[in-house]
Write a structure and sequence with these properties.
Blueprint: E1 7-9, E2 12-14, H1 16-19, E3 23-26, H2 33-46, E4 50-56, H3 59-64, E5 70-71, E6 81-82, H4 93-101, H5 108-130, H6 136-145, H7 148-155, H8 169-188, E7 196-197, H9 199-205, E8 209-214, H10 219-238, E9 248-252, H11 264-270, E10 276-282, H12 285-292, H13 295-301, E11 305-308, H14 314-327, E12 329-343, E13 347-361, H15 365-369, E14 375-379, E15 386-390
Parallel strand pairs: 3-10, 3-11, 4-8, 4-9, 5-8, 6-7, 9-10
Antiparallel strand pairs: 1-2, 11-14, 12-13, 14-15
Helix pairs in contact: 4-5, 4-10, 5-8, 6-8, 8-10, 9-10
The protein binds adenosine-5'-triphosphate and magnesium ion.
Length: 398
């Protein structure tokens, strides 16, 4: 059977159960993260798995694009017409779509403002959708250009109405400022032709791959949209019927360059039942923490399959230390001979022998810092052992 073919991480075969325990590849630039993720993608595609890919520089898209695949990037002529309103299927979706568009940042004070802005966006969506006031383009136009009076009208009867009460002008201005990036992101998608495209419908019934390619100079403009799209796709997967056969991969290389994917931390633990497999690549733990705060730890803990590659000297060698800790320590018995001298009134010398248990790093941080390109350590979810790996460069462009 096709789906029984396996996938490998840096040459190490993963079991069927390993796959849904997610994959993280960690290493500094040039260490081989993208190469390993592409090889994994190659195996998954060869047996017909579906995937959603945040694709830096569109490298994977260039290698694996197939007829019928969907591309989302407003600066690419092949971009599908993503339609924010078509992601809304029932009233509980207003808050979900708003939080996907405007994720929390994990910073106490600012998160409060983000919550207000989410509520305003959700309120506007609610009335616009319920009263059928127009298309997604009309909605985006209205949010971007509406006078405050119009926006107040739009939020009547929703929890966001209270932000328009008299005397609250300064607060409203701050909320609008917080909401501005989300509106900017939506505007990138406005004015496109073609059939409306819904990520949720694609997750339920689509086929092939969903590509989100972005060039380095598009990162600032697209990081918010890509994180939003990824969040919607991941959540929709959680609402499918549970399945042991299904595989949908979420490939997120250079995760630290993207914005926060609001529900990722929680979703990792739940995706397994639905056949969702997340494969992440990032450069340093410090950068991951900048985006996810304490959630960074949860993310790493929830990735059962790890590929640790060369880690840089940056952030005080923190990532190399973390890698060394993850690989673990072993207890070794060592005989220590202590010589003591005490200088009192008389010079005395003594010697004692004792057996001491010392914990030593199996792989020292310094070794991780010095690994060559495309060499490192793999841990599979289903095995306690670490495997030393070296893997070739494969660009898969045929
Ligand atoms: N076109 C190429 N032909 C042959 N080898 C290459 C090519 N591109 C990269 N490599 C080799 O593969 C290694 C890993 O590259 P890869 O792009 O996977 O690194 P990375 O960890 O994703 O880095 P970055 O963080 O910069 O994206 C490089 O250091 C280089 O040795
Ligand atoms: Mg890369």
């Amino acid at each position: 059977m096709r789906y029984r073919r396996g996938v490998a991480l840096a040459g190490v075969p993963l079991s069927r159960a390993d796959e849904t325990m997610h994959v993280a590849t960690i290493g500094s630039t040039g260490s081989g993260k993208s190469t390993a993720l592409r090889a994994l993608m190659h195996d998954a595609l060869a047996r017909g798995d579906r995937q959603v890919v945040a694709d830096p520089e569109g490298t994977a898209l260039g290698a694996f694009f197939a007829e019928g695949d969907i591309i989302l990037n407003p600066f690419d002529a092949r971009c599908a017409r993503w339609d924010v309103l078509s992601e809304i299927e029932r009233p509980s979706d207003f808050a979900f779509v708003a939080s996907s568009l405007l994720p929390h940042l994990g910073q106490g004070d600012h998160d409060q403002w983000i919550s207000y802005a989410q509520q305003l966006l959700a309120g506007a969506l609610e009335n616009f959708w319920t009263l059928k006031l127009g298309s997604s383009d009309d909605f985006i136009e209205m949010l971007g250009c509406a006078k405050l009076g119009e926006l107040r009208q739009l939020c009547i009867g929703t929890p966001a109405a209270r932000y328009f009460e008299e005397g609250g002008e300064r607060m409203l201005a701050s909320i609008m400022g917080t909401m501005a990036p989300a509106i900017g992101n939506l505007r990138h998608m406005a004015g496109r032709g073609g059939e409306p495209f819904s990520l949720r419908a694609w997750v339920r019934g689509g086929s092939g791959s969903l590509w989100m390619p972005y060039a380095a100079n598009e990162t600032a403009a697209l990081r918010g949209l890509i994180s939003c799209w990824m969040n919607i796709a991941i959540f929709e997967t959680l609402s499918l019927a549970s399945s042991r056969e299904r595989r949908i991969w979420f490939q997120i290389d250079e995760m630290d360059a993207l914005g926060r994917i609001e529900g990722l931390t929680n979703a990792l633990a739940r995706l397994r039942k639905f056949g969702g497999c997340v494969a992440l690549g990032f450069q340093s733990y410090a950068q991951l923490r900048q985006v996810y705060g304490d959630g960074a730890e949860t993310i790493i803990e929830n990735c059962g399959n790890l590929l640790l590659l060369r880690s840089g000297l940056s952030d005080d060698g923190g990532t190399a230390k973390l890698a060394s800790q993850l690989i673990g320590s072993r207890e070794v018995e060592r005989q220590d001979i202590n010589r003591t001298r005490s200088r009192g009134r008389y010079l005395t010398r003594s010697m004692s022998m004792q057996t001491r248990r010392a914990v030593e790093d199996v792989v020292l941080p310094s070794e991780i810092m010095q690994l060559p390109d495309r060499a490192g350590f793999v841990k599979r979810a289903g095995s306690p052992d670490w495997v030393r790996v070296r893997f070739p460069y494969g660009d898969f462009s045929s």
